[in-house]
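step=encode ok
step=design start
structure_in=
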């Protein structure tokens, strides 16, 4: 598609593969070759698998930050918090993607849509992600929530930073091989055959 750019600290790359897109990321890291980041793949419904591909860089300065009562700080990539909407919009599965930091001895409650899949991934620190305040989840933990209307997080003796992600479930079979996600193995075979023939990218 001709896009090129640098993703620096705090930036986001948002891509919808759709009917086909070829991409490459070339991480550089710091002086010791280290870097941290997150890559999340979300499936598209079969009816939208062949939609036009889209790509955008979202710079850190474009991502709004909302200070919550109690001290939590929320960076909104996609979704809405306190009537503030993130820059990524009009996504088929209605996702929400929040970067949340909660200070020591504080809490954070956020409404979620009933029926949506909701999970939190702890980046650093620890907190209670359920009703049992003594049960703390630490760095590297993924918390998958049951269906409900809201999630509540409470910290103890240390702060926590986590990603809170939700979206509308598709309820369709997943066939996945390498970088391509479809619904059936036959669709995967066709996609790779088109890639070899040079007809994978639909314009």
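sequence_out=
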């Amino acid at each position: 598609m001709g896009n090129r750019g640098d993703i620096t600290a705090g930036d986001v790359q948002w891509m919808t593969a759709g009917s086909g897109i070829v991409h490459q990321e070339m991480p550089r890291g710091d002086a010791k070759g280290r870097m941290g980041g997150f890559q999340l793949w979300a499936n598209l419904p079969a009816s939208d698998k062949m939609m036009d591909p889209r790509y955008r860089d979202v710079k850190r300065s474009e991502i709004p930050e909302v200070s919550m009562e109690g001290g939590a700080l929320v960076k909104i990539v996609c979704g809405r918090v306190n009537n503030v909407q993130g820059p990524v919009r009009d996504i088929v599965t209605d996702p929400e993607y929040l970067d949340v930091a909660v200070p020591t001895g504080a809490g954070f409650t956020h409404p979620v849509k009933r029926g949506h899949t909701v999970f939190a991934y702890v980046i650093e620190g620890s907190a209670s992600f359920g009703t049992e305040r003594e049960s703390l989840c630490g760095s590297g933990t993924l918390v998958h929530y049951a269906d409900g209307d809201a999630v509540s997080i409470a910290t103890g003796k240390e702060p926590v930073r986590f990603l809170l992600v939700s979206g509308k479930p598709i309820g369709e079979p997943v066939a996945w091989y390498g970088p391509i996600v479809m619904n059936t193995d036959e669709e995967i075979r066709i996609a790779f055959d088109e890639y070899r023939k040079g007809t994978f990218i639909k314009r």
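step=design ok
step=annotate ok -> The first helix runs from residue 185 to 197.
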